[in-house]
Amino acid sequence: MPDLQATAEYLSTGANRHTAVADWSQSGVLAFGANSNICLWTPSASSHVGIAGILSGHKDAVKAVKFLPPTEGGNEVIISGSDDKTLKLWELNADHATGQCVQTLTDHTAPINTIAILKSRNPSTPTLIATGAADATFRVWKYEAGRLLLLSTIKPTPKFFPLTLALSTLDHGDDVVVLAVAGTRDIIQIHVAANTAASLDFQLQATLTGAGSATSCA
């Protein structure tokens, strides 16, 4: 009887059902949470084999995935949040199919629902990242020298669980940072902070009403 060999012609899987669970890189890589893993897929790849790689390390469902802005000559970097209450920072290899976890953060004390990223217009100013979790906090970090550093922790009043975040700046500079937050109440909060090297002291500036029930997409 001749030897028989099986080869994978195409690999596919379903993504976790959450609005923040997938993101595209500028190079055309799609990263998305599938159970406790992050799957990597390049639809334009000539090989057409489907999922090219899997990043494993979370211990529960991945709910939020974001690519950090690329740096010149550097590898692509992903930040992910999970029901296991951790944020993980991943550095992809040049093949866009493999990578390694380079940092795990345990500051949140409940499942992480959403991640937002703000790339600075000034190359000397770090990228900012906001994360929201079911511990009724949202936290703002800076990405510098390949690491995430916590700058600010905000506990909204009235209490709610953040489900979606957006970061921006006023006008064309980076001096003032605006953070919009929505979640398990029918409001959207607008927080503003002066962008300094040492910290970000966010202050609630406006509360928008009339959003209906819980808001999970902004």
From TrEMBL:
It holds the Pfam family WD40. Keywords: Cytoplasm, Nucleus, Repeat, tRNA processing, WD repeat. GO terms for biological process: tRNA wobble uridine modification. Pathway: tRNA modification; 5-methoxycarbonylmethyl-2-thiouridine-tRNA biosynthesis. It is found in: Cytoplasm; Nucleus. InterPro entries: Elp2 (IPR037289), WD40/YVTN_repeat-like_dom_sf (IPR015943), WD40_repeat_CS (IPR019775), WD40_repeat_dom_sf (IPR036322), WD40_rpt (IPR001680). One of its GO terms (cellular component) is cytoplasm. WD repeats lie at residues 55-100, 105-151. Belongs to the WD repeat ELP2 family. This is Elongator complex protein 2.
